[in-house]
Amino acid sequence: MAGIFAPDPVLLHARLRPASLACIDLATNRRWTYAELNSDIQRATAVLSAYAVEAGDRVATVCINSVHQIILQQALMRLGAIFVPLNWRLAQPELSKLLDDCTPTIIFTDRDPPELPLGCRHIEFSRICEEVDNADPGRRLRSRSSQETSIILYTSGTSCTPKGVILTAQSILATTVDFSVLTEADTGCVFLCDGPMFHFMGLIAQIWPPLMRGGTLLVSPRFNPEATNRRLSDPQLGITHYFCVPQMAEALSRAVNFDPSAWLTLKALFTGGAPNPPARIKWWLDQGICMVDGYGSTEMGTISGMPLSPEMIIKKAGSVGHPGPLTSIRVVDDRGQPLLPGAIGEVLVSRDVSTPIYWNNVEEDIASLTPDGWFRTGDIGWADEDGFIFLVDRRKHMFISGGENVYPAEVETILTEHPDILEAAVVGVPDETWGEAGRAYVVTSSGSRIPQTDMVMHCQSRIARFKIPKEFVFVNGLPRTGSGKVMKHLLGEDTVSRL
């Protein structure tokens, strides 16, 4: 794929199906056909050129979701410039660190800007929206190379400073193909996008597949469980695909207007980004909703996904699916040697993606790749005879208790099978007797403590004794990133409120 040009799906479908509905901004109810969306993207290139944006420049945003963010990203791609969406949940000092790393020429925000690096100017996002609406379309630009950097996405930073991941048109196309095949996206698809656009889920997985297939994209400013339930039940919207993290799915099920029997057009509820216990997937199947779990990362994009088959989901319970057509996976031991099916090791991924992987971070580039170019996910798992992947935990989360490896994700899954437990996070802590022992942070549905004897008895019938946490800490909630991952490095600090 090295010699291909960057894909331009909006231009393609503006020619193939100009009158087809491309997107709706649910905050304003404004609609765009593919012809109209293409014209607005071309107007945006003219506005950006007037701002002196050139190929290779970084342009950052700190904004909630909108169709105009998509217009901006597509326009920057046509110019050969780089889109850098930043997490609007971050504090000003945190944003300033990221700006110092990516050194944008412009930052668009819908709030007060952070401290800006030298050479960066601030423009209110509403201003470019108005200017795009009133501008004349810019001249048609030459096709760009698929090898150019198109987007920098900063990782969640669950244990350290976020890293800027480089996405080229080539890597975006590869993950779009994999996601589209695994989720059965077609020209009639309608995707609801309410995941944050500073995250892979909101910017790539929820946007690029429908654009590539000529489908329709519904953009919500942010996630709201009641609003999402209402939209999934609306036959006029006709949503076919909804992708979220498991915590968002749980919020839907707890909302007062939860009625999955009304989700008549939905093919499946797709989840990823955080562990999804098999018991919860089965619960959704019992509600008549095909919950399809998948696996991916900011660096590699979509890696695998389950088929849209309730029978296969039951048969392969606990799996995050099969790799997509453009992705290869192998599981290796500590020496990097491939393991047989069923053996647990580190999951490596191979795909034709950009090198370097990280922005301004040569050390991470070197550490993340094997000598023969496979990406080290840092995830521990195994593959079965059919190539389906089962994840055990993150390598860095594993601890050793009495000489035995303990994978917190396994223990967390068992804990959340307790009827009174909503969430759990397990970490290893120093222990005089065992070297390390488990400490479980637990969120209960009632908001009250559960006797430790009850917790231990629940675990004893399901996992080995050495895996059972020695301590249970009941908290009001778990600290999470914008993508739904638990920030385990914050557990034990004053960031969690104990019951």
TrEMBL record:
Ordered alphabetically, the record's keywords are: Ligase
One Gene Ontology term of the molecular function aspect: medium-chain fatty acid-CoA ligase activity
Pfam families per the UniProt record, alphabetical: AMP-binding (PF00501), AMP-binding_C (PF13193)
Tell me which residues make up the AMP-binding enzyme C-terminal domain.
410-485
Indicate the segments forming the AMP-dependent synthetase/ligase domain, all copies: 14-359
List the SUPFAM superfamilies hit by this protein, alphabetically: Acetyl-CoA synthetase-like
Top-level taxonomic group? Eukaryota
Query: Do you know which Gene3D superfamilies this protein is assigned to?
Result: 3.30.300.30, N-terminal domain of ligase-like
Q: Does the keyword Ligase apply?
A: yes
Q: Which GO terms describe its biological process?
A: fatty acid metabolic process
Q: Does the keyword Ligase belong to this entry?
A: yes
Q: Which family does it belong to?
A: Belongs to the ATP-dependent AMP-binding enzyme family.
Q: What is this protein called?
A: Long-chain-fatty-acid--CoA ligase FadD13
